[in-house]
Amino acid sequence: MYPDRETAERILEEGERCRPGSWADHSRITARCAERIARNAGLDPDKAYVLGLLHDIGRKFGTGQMRHIYDGYSYMMSLGYDDAARICLTHSFNGKRIEEYPGAIDTTEEETACIVSGLEKAEYDDYDRLIQLCDAIAGTEGVMDIMDRMNDVKKRYGAYDRHKWDTNLALKKYFEEKMGMDLAEAIAEDTEKGRI
Question: Angle at the Cα of 189 (from 128 to 169), degrees rounded to 5?
Answer without folding.
Answer: 40
